[in-house]
Amino acid sequence: MSKKIPTQYVWLDNRMVKAEDAKVPIMTHSLQYGSGIFEGIRAYETDNGVAVFRLDEHVRRFMNSMKIHAMNCGYTERQLKEAILDVIRKDGLGACYIRPFAFYNDDSIGLSTSGKKVSVFVAARPFGKYFAKQTGIRCKVSSWNRINSSILPVEAKASGNYLNSIIASMEAKRLGFDEAILLSQNGYVAEGPGENIFLVRDNVLLTPDKGSDILRGITRDSLIKLAESIGIEVQERQVHREELYTADELFFSGTAAELTSITEVDGIKVGNGAVGPITKMLAQAFDDVVHGRNTDFGGWLTHV
Prior knowledge:
single chain, D-amino Acid Aminotransferase, Chain A, domain 2, 2 domains, nine-stranded mixed β-sheet, 29% strand
């Protein structure tokens, strides 16, 4: 006997509706032209119930992404945070991935956004590990460069930006790798398709800086603060491609990826080809924070 799937709800324009009843025009601008703005947020199980990780920072970035694209959704940060918590409660979710999305809700053809209605939905789904391989993944430096701010605003999480990520990831997987690594236009290491990247060399944690055309991830910021709190030196700077090959350890960070070790780049083994000690240490520290076991960073959790 098949298990009955519970009804799932989404928040759409200040109303809670069944997911199957959340309908928008098929010709909406954001579907045709990639003009949507989104966030990726996670909630985790703790001893005190479900908690959303760094909710304030995620919602603030969501609002800033809209501001960069001159999009006004008409909601405050407080309203959006409440909507996120309401969806988790309504669906009775534990650990989950939350997707707020702002889009032009119209039914017309044309690039102009003038006068078009902006809608927002919030959906949440149960979520586990993004990468199946927990012993490390194999990456390829992409032939596609990372976009930069002379092309599109890299600080905004806009749908259209991620075509750059998708085509790089498709190339890597087609060639037998697990994921791509993108370089900036000037040849320095930028990031993964949906992840920031960290290197460990001589016990120093390195990560590409803002000038490397990265999206400054919230998980990235969390790991920098965690590393500094346990006495690990952190450097944000431009990173040469060949440093990927000579690193002692290498890993991705991101809301979905959390910490994912990279054990091979372009067929070259990273370090000894296994998950490194600093990667393990930071992964454990991060896990302790998101599950509420490290109260020093308890302010990063918003309990549902």
